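Retro notes - structure team

What went well: the batch runner handled both jobs without manual restarts.
What didn't: labels got mixed up in the shared folder, which is why I'm recording both outputs here explicitly, each with its sequence directly above its tokens.

Job 1
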Amino acid sequence: MAALLPQPRIVEMLNKRAHDVLLGHNFAHQQIGYGKTLAAEEGEPIKQRTLLEVEVAAQQQRQLKSTAHHKYRAAASEQLHKAIDKAIATELNDIDNIIKNTIGVDENVCAILDILATNSASVGRLEPLVNDLSWLGRELVDLVNLPYYRKQRSKATAVKVENPALALRYIGLDNLQFVVPTMAVRHWMPHSTEPFSLLKRRLRENAMATAIAAQKLAALNNVNASHAFTLGMLLNVGQSVLVRLYLKVFAKIWQQRVDYARSSVNKDLHTALLEIKPDALFLATFLREKSLAVTSKVIKRMAFQYLPFNNVMQQLVNNEPVTQPLAAVMLKARCYGQYLLLKEHQLIEPNEIPQLFSYFNFTNEELAVLEASNFTNLAIQIN
């Protein structure tokens, strides 16, 4: 058995692995050297005829051309991604534009989350804000009309709900503290993540797992559970921002360069560009290095009055000593969300698990509660 790595190195390695698997199961395995090879067929070896000298020369020439093309394409991709990196950095300097045009955070959502964090919250205060958000009203109505929740209600109230105001009352304030942040974060996620076909689903599942883990851990550590759940849902909103930005900027700059290659009759560049696709390694590294800082900027811009998230995010982003109970909960919740993702894809070894949990100071009670929890959906009751 290989010698154990120091714990901080283990944490760094597993964090990288968790970001890699967001982009693809096979990609993550390739990054740690699990590339699959085709097994040779059994039986007698096939005799190869001796190549003629002219065939050998032709084969070598093809290999040289192929190698040269691959190098040219790699260089074109590198230049393309340098331009993309610079363009995204410029976009990230304007966080107001990110909020408005990249993920579309409406101020009403921030106000709703803030109201739900207060003791004076009421459906009456929420109703006009929800009415101005057609997508949220529609999703709340769809939720209470799900057969699962209609069965929970009495026969007298099991009729189909058709307006958001009634849906708010059926769901109730306690449930809304968990339902609204879930719906909001899902609404801000990319509509499409092609060519990374499963990325959106993994972002959604990881956000939910992190939020539920935060809620469970908060209950064990005298921390407000709804605050912890909300921040758990928001914690990776920076990933949604960066995925949206990367795919948008890639498409724009790639098209500009294809047009240039075509107009300048640069066949080699045109051919190389047509073979270049969005790069999993670039995006995974981008998410790992920048998403938490972007999340912090987005949360700060949301200007919450009652949700105490800014100082927590500052500690997480700057890797400062954790002095707030909510920050400690978030570190553990993020760790456990990544653990579930790695476990699902068989990307964490048995000897790595106790080291990971020890590094974040999980207690046996916390691990027992998390082990028994459901991380796929909200456990709410609608009367």
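Job 2
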Amino acid sequence: MSIIIDVGGLGPADIAAGPSALSELMASLHILAEPEHHPEAADWTARAAAVDPVLRDELAVFAPLWARFRCRLFYPRTLPVAAGLPEELAAVEDLPRTEFLGLVAPGVLGATSRPAPAAHELRPGTEAAEEYVRQCRRRSHSRGDLAAELVADPAAFRARLLAVLRAADSAFFADDWHTLRPALDEHTREVRRRLARSRPPVDVLTELLPTASRVGPGARIRLDKLQIDEVVVGRRPLVLVPSVRVWPHLVVKDEDPSCVVVQYAVVAAAPSGPGQLSLRALHDRLTALASPGRMELCRHLLGEPITTSELAARLGSTEPQVSRTLRQLREAGLVRSTRDGKLVRHRLATDVVRALGDDVLATVMR
């Protein structure tokens, strides 16, 4: 499964890059809402979760907005990206009622086969609004309650949401953003340098975005995601939002006509520096370990570096057979081979095997 992004016709001037405090706050709130899905952020989560119980309850109320289907409200819609969270929240506060409803209503509903109704239909007492609330409630009671509040009084809903976001900023996010921002700014400068070298944007994006690969003719990029979709950027700007807290997710937002947004993980900026596997790489590693013969060979490689001939003697096999097995394991990243004079010694990549549990979770979540 994947998302294809067609960037045909885009030039460097059509691509904007920059960190967004509001988008990073949403990614942070997603981690707080689902900490068991983000073991890599356990230390940060423990610190951030030690907030006032009232704020914690309010964050739980609005959690559907930063679940798997991220609410479009939290992503840039104007260029350049606002300088900081106060400016981004002020822009949310100034949105016309219909625009606010149009951005938030799909986020409350989340990903379903039926889209949310148009914003002008979400008025109290209308059949469209009542069906929308029922649709949200079928997904969960929390979504249903949130939808009812949104329909009944969008202004009060917005004021409550903004108060929660500002409280979260004061409680933990402002300090975190102060720490994260410099690395994201440096990454943004590097993105702009690459684009300024007149290289095709499709090449730059393939290098930048985790799990990205070019596909077919033209300027199309495949992103390894749970959903299936094709996004044609067309004449809209493409906005790249680098992030630390979004890992391991990759978010593509195409709902708004103003621009297409891609929020992606800057692995080098993350404290633990985790990588991201493609679905194919994960499949190859799990398949390699699923064979009893390859698993037996791995057990011999765990204790010390071993030559091919020694492995063949231990396993009662031929050197060509062992060489083929080693090649399969090496191509999957599970074995490292080093030359020692005329000999080549092999050893199990224990760090790669140890990380497979987190890799499986991260790939499934993406």
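One thing worth noting from job 2: The longest helix spans residues 154-196.
We'll revisit the folder naming next retro.
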